[in-house]
Specification:
By secondary structure, the protein is an alpha/beta fold. It is built from 14 helices and 15 strands.
Length: 391
């Protein structure tokens, strides 16, 4: 198959729409559904991301994409009891490594992952299919599917769920092109391999970056490689916990990603774990309620006449002081940036979210200020010399 007609482009008025190959055949097969233009953008970017994560770590990887940027990305490490609960998988028993990877990727920012497109590094197994089955999602791409897993996915969305199989041996042309305003842009593909070699230039007084932190930094950098710029990524324990994408200002990027990382950690607090939801409340509504409860608009779910529709028992207010006390327990977070930090204010904000390890290109005229701010908090920061803009 050399080309595939799509329903429409980015918007319904943008017709005709297709994907095609100038030479050779498309490296994909649509096993179910009818993926659209944005679905394929998410699928192909996500597939590259999880493929690189698998090569870099040796672990199965998954990502949850929305609007051509990852909402979450992770490798298949086991989930602890708290993680199982905050990702709503505590009723599924022990998960396979691939299912664990997707639970982590989906769980990083569940609000953003609603209606996601999923990319899996490995053949989709039954555990992963059963997890996908109960989430609101547009589709999945993987190098293959176990027969039972495929049947589970085919039944999703009244039989219309998008299931794509990609040839893992496919190698794209080293030159890539796209058109904007009728003008063709051409560049070499970003084929740089992100590995430990980029973490050797540690410029802070603290030079100690343990192996676990190096893995987290590599996950951050690979995730940024496929995130719309400007972008910043917080990682802990083998998964992205906060991704800030497409911001014009670096500090806004750092704040956005930091607020998502904070929300991820706040969901693990006793105040949130102790919330008693009505049995009739679904996962998406629980996610929305938690987001409001831990935010500034908490009265939207705690006001009389509102909480009764969500909770069995009215929760106490999660005060700003109590939230800060809990957030101060979050430590050893890794942070990657797709371009240099121009000011130390980014480091100040990162510190509030427990960041201890940083990887960024370096090269700002204020590098000394950024380094000094890291030293102030005993952070270890390396200059990669590698910019990772993606558009």
């Amino acid at each position: 198959m050399k080309e595939l007609e799509l329903k429409y482009g980015c918007n319904p008025n943008q017709k005709p729409s297709r994907i095609f190959m100038n030479e050779g055949e498309l490296p994909i097969e649509v096993l179910n559904g009818k993926p659209g233009y944005i679905n394929f953008l998410d699928a192909f970017n996500g597939w590259q991301l999880v493929s690189e994560l698998k090569k870099a770590t040796g672990l199965p990887a998954a990502t949850s994409f929305k609007h051509v940027s990852p909402a979450g990305a992770a490798v298949g490490l086991p989930l602890n009891d708290v993680e199982k609960k905050i990702y709503w998988v505590d009723d599924l028993g022990e998960l396979s490594p691939l299912a664990s990877a997707y639970a982590r990727a989906r769980g990083a920012d569940r609000m953003s992952s609603f209606g996601d497109f999923i990319s899996l590094s490995d053949v989709c197994d039954v555990d992963t299919a059963n997890l996908i089955k109960r989430e609101v999602s547009d589709g999945v791409i993987a190098p293959g599917y176990e027969p039972e897993a495929l049947e589970i996915l085919k039944a999703k969305k009244k039989g219309n769920y998008n299931v794509i199989q990609i040839d893992p041996s496919y190698v794209p042309n080293p030159i890539e092109r796209k058109e904007v305003f009728g003008i063709t842009f051409e560049q070499g593909r970003n084929e740089l391999v992100v590995d430990d070699d980029f973490l050797g230039n540690v410029v802070t007084e603290n030079k100690d970056i343990p192996e676990s932190a190096k893995i987290d930094l590599i996950i951050a950098l690979i995730t940024l490689k496929y995130t719309q710029s400007n972008s910043v990524c917080y990682v802990k324990g083998g998964q992205a916990i906060g991704i800030g994408a497409g911001q014009q200002s670096r500090i806004h990027c750092t704040r956005l990603a930091g607020s998502k990382a904070d929300n991820w950690f706040l969901r693990q607090s006793p105040q949130v774990l102790g919330l008693q939801f009505l049995d009739t409340i679904g996962r998406a509504d629980r996610d929305n309620a938690i987001d409001l409860y831990i935010g500034e608009d908490y009265m939207d779910v705690l006001a009389d006449g509102a909480w009764e529709n969500i909770f069995k028992v009215k929760p106490e207010v999660f005060t700003r002081e109590a939230k800060r006390e809990w957030l101060d327990k979050n430590q050893d977070v890794a942070l990657g940036s797709d371009a240099f930090f121009p000011f130390g204010d980014n480091i100040e904000r990162a510190h509030k979210s427990g960041v201890k390890y940083i990887a960024q290109p370096g090269g700002s005229i204020r590098d000394d200020n950024v380094i000094d701010t890291c030293n102030k908090y005993n952070m270890a920061m390396c200059f990669t010399g590698l910019r990772l803009f993606h558009h």
